[in-house]
Design brief:
Residues 2-237 form the ABC transporter domain. The chain contains eight helices and ten strands. By secondary structure, the protein is an alpha/beta fold. It has two domains: 1-80 and 157-222, P-loop containing nucleotide triphosphate hydrolases (Rossmann fold, 3-Layer(aba) Sandwich), CATH 3.40.50.300; 83-155, no CATH class. It starts with a strand and ends in an 11-residue tail after the last helix. The structure holds adenosine-5'-triphosphate (ATP).
Length: 237
């Protein structure tokens, strides 16, 4: 579903944020992306969303080579990807319902469909009863769940998350992870960037570890434990 073949990304200032990164994520996998601040996690996610172009190598998403993606096809490409941000980027001038509806309104869904899909998404994250509220009236964990409902409202095949639990305490972080697992169980492919090593260990899922733009390891956390967690132990943010 997501294929990176020797992908490098050099920004216009000459900085090489990714250096020959290769990996494959199959449809229906749930994978974590970790690494210290500046390791290239956000850059990698931006390449998948076609917000940045690789300077070398190829990125394929759901069979299409993003190097060959015409500009006019970018919106269609992005529609198959839901994105969850650390600071959730909700709009505080409108209700929870309207925040979640936004991607559907932009995509031109008929109003009857919008209502049905928004309520289905809010129901999945347990916030149906708060659809009329302003996001400002919700707790941090609830706001993040609204962000997740917005990311999944048009039923994307792929869900990307950039430090989705960065501002949450461990209990709320676990709840968010449980939600991600539920989406994964119904077939959504997930790639979640997080530098919270403890959280990743508990999930027991595949972890891609970046260091200074290179893919340092690709394994599940138990293996990280037993082989001395190459590049992870003693590695502080
Ligand atoms: N548009 C840009 N122009 C130049 N350099 C950039 C740009 N975006 C990111 N970088 C640099 O590329 C490196 C990787 O950044 P990136 O945001 O991908 O890292 P990250 O692993 O997501 O870190 P963090 O967890 O702090 O967000 C950093 O050194 C950053 O300063």
């Amino acid at each position: 579903m997501i294929h990176f073949d020797r992908v490098a990304k050099r920004y216009s200032n000459g900085f090489e944020a990714l250096k020959s990164v290769s990996f494959d994520i199959a449809a229906g996998e749930m994978v974590f992306l970790t690494g210290h601040s500046g390791a290239g996690k956000s850059t990698l996610l931006k390449l998948i969303m076609a917000m940045e172009q690789p300077s070398r190598g190829q990125v394929l998403v759901n069979g299409s080579n993003l190097n060959r993606l015409a500009d006019r096809h970018i919106p269609l490409h992005r529609r198959q990807i839901g994105v969850v941000f650390q600071n959730h980027q909700l709009l505080f001038d409108r209700s929870v319902f309207d925040n979640v509806a936004l991607p559907l309104v932009i995509a031109g869904f008929p109003p009857s469909d919008v209502g049905r899909r928004v309520r289905a998404a809010l129901d999945k994250v347990g916030l149906l009863h708060k659809e009329a509220r302003n996001p400002l009236e919700l707790s941090g964990g609830e706001q993040q769940r609204v962000g997740i409902a917005r990311a999944v409202v048009n039923k994307p095949k792929i869900l990307l998350a950039d430090e989705p639990t960065g501002n949450l305490d461990p209990e709320l972080s676990a709840e968010i992870m449980e939600l991600f697992r539920q989406f994964n169980e119904v077939g959504v492919t997930l790639l979640i960037a997080s530098h919270d090593i403890e959280l990743l260990r508990r999930q027991q899922k595949r972890v891609l570890a970046l260091r200074e733009g290179e893919l340092l390891s690709d394994q599940v956390p138990t293996a990280l434990h037993s082989d001395g967690a190459k590049g992870h132990r003693g590695h502080h943010e």
